[in-house]
From TrEMBL:
InterPro entries, alphabetized: RNA_pol_sigma-70-like, RNA_pol_sigma-70_dom, RNA_pol_sigma70_r2, RNA_pol_sigma70_r4_t2, RNA_pol_sigma_r2, RNA_pol_sigma_r3/r4-like, WH-like_DNA-bd_sf
Keyword list, A-Z: Sigma factor, Transcription, Transcription regulation
UniProt family annotation: Belongs to the sigma-70 factor family. ECF subfamily.
Record keyword Nucleotidyltransferase present: no
Top-level taxonomy: Bacteria, Pseudomonadati, Bacteroidota, Flavobacteriia, Flavobacteriales
Protein name listed in UniProt: RNA polymerase sigma factor
Organism: Galbibacter pacificus
Length: 177
């Protein structure tokens, strides 16, 4: 099903349920991995993904179609993941940086993480980045997202994203040396 037809069916009461099932099947894996790279934990990712799809379902009527559907959903997923991390930081009364390092440490014991020592080191380096650089690096490096799409998701300019990615790469290289 083409995206424009899917959107039309999502906005129609008669076809919304079926279309939403199609939407979930089409995007759940991509959104899962996008969220997972932000929150780093499988169970937390499942919770955030579920909240993301609930928000998408509740707000699909307000989707203005001035961007691609997936960039709109990525924006919701990103905001949900960041909100989750802020909430977790407040609950644990810790800093965002300390939480990120704790999440990376927990990857070692996570049965759903099948990475080796090099991938753990990369995650440590990414965790040390400022939030925006971390998001930009993940989207560009792992998801190969175009800067133009990232600009919509993160509500910023392409130039700022390129600079953030460049700085992130330099910091990761320095960390890994």
């Amino acid at each position: 099903m083409q995206e424009d037809i899917l959107i039309k069916e999502l906005k129609s009461v008669a076809t919304q349920e079926h279309a939403f099932g199609e939407l979930v099947n089409r995007y759940k894996e991509r959104l899962y991995w996008h969220i997972r790279r932000i929150v780093l934990n499988h169970d937390d990712t499942d919770d955030v993904l579920q909240n993301t799809f609930i928000k998408i379902y509740k707000n699909i009527q307000g989707f203005k179609e001035d961007s691609a559907l997936y960039t709109w959903m990525y924006r919701i997923a990103t905001n949900e993941a960041l909100t989750f991390l802020k909430k977790r930081t407040n609950e644990l009364k810790t800093s965002g940086e300390a939480l990120q390092m704790s999440l990376v440490e927990n990857l070692r014991a996570d049965p759903y993480f099948d990475g080796d020592e090099i991938q753990l080191k990369l995650q440590e380096a990414i965790a040390e980045l400022p939030e925006k650089q971390r998001l930009v690096f993940n989207m560009k490096y792992f998801e190969e997202m175009k800067y133009e799409d990232m600009a919509v998701v993160l509500d910023t300019s392409v130039g700022a994203l390129k600079a953030s990615y460049h700085h992130a790469v330099k910091k990761i290289e320095a960390f890994l040396k």
